[in-house]
Write a structure and sequence with these properties.
single chain; alpha/beta; two-stranded antiparallel ribbon; 6 strands
């Protein structure tokens, strides 16, 4: 059933308790005109449709991985639109949920690239807790309707997120898979940060260059060169 009552986006932001660095850098966004328009849209849309993820998980990425802790950024598009899947981290699903095809391909590349056995399920919180910021560029979606909230107001907020990450002095690895993610390269200071690009891991495009991109080992080499421990992409992360 569509939700009849739901806190405003600003109330959800406060209630979910995003990590302190994000509160400092993004609090002003909730006073911007685009945010008021987004709130109006969501207020109307939730009366007619079921929206994912649940309100308490919309900002989950900002809760798990604080601004100064980010070492790797992976940009997705919008949340999974099937019941029980989305929980606020791009490409991730809730524990014990069947792997979506794109995540199956990501795990295939991890195994080929690093030799690590992938996580036991599709729940990527172990990555987030190591500093992998798993950000969709649109943070909500209608049930069963991919891209249904595209262009409704989330993009300025997530673009600002990328901008403040790019402004950080400490180097970050940005993994940009597919055209939507790669449009954000213009927001990134590539003289400071490493940007790795490949086709989207969807079955429709993974064979065109995602397989064999070796982004996971390349990200780790960059981190180690800058004095940071590597990401455990496989079961060692759990």
């Amino acid at each position: 059933m569509p939700e009849r009552t739901m806190p405003s986006i600003a109330q959800l932001w406060r209630a979910e308790k995003p990590a302190p660095g994000w509160r400092e850098h993004l609090a002003g966004e909730f006073r911007q005109p685009y945010m008021r328009q987004l709130i109006q849209f969501l207020d109307a849309d939730r009366l007619q449709h079921t929206l994912f993820p649940e309100p308490r998980n919309i900002f989950r990425a900002y809760v798990l991985t604080d601004y100064p802790a980010v070492r790797v950024v992976i940009l997705g598009q919008d949340p999974y639109h099937g019941p029980g899947q989305a929980h606020g981290l791009c490409f991730s699903v809730k524990p014990q949920v069947r792997l979506p095809p794109s995540l199956e391909n990501i795990y295939r590349e991890i195994r080929s690239d690093t030799g690590e056995e992938p996580l036991a399920d599709g729940h990527l919180e172990p990555w987030a807790r190591q500093g992998v910021f798993l950000l969709n560029t649109v943070l909500t979606v209608r049930r069963g309707q991919a891209n249904s909230h595209r262009g409704k107001g989330w993009e300025p907020f997530t673009a600002r997120t990328v901008e403040v990450l790019s402004a950080r002095a400490e180097p970050i690895v940005f993994l940009l898979w597919g055209r939507n993610a790669q449009e954000h390269e213009r927001l990134i200071d590539t003289s400071r940060h490493l940007v790795l690009k490949a086709p989207h891991p969807s079955p429709m495009s993974a064979d065109r260059g995602f397989f064999g991109c070796r982004h996971f080992s390349r990200a780790n080499r960059f981190l180690e060169r800058h004095g940071h421990p590597p990401i455990h992409w496989g079961r060692g992360a759990a």
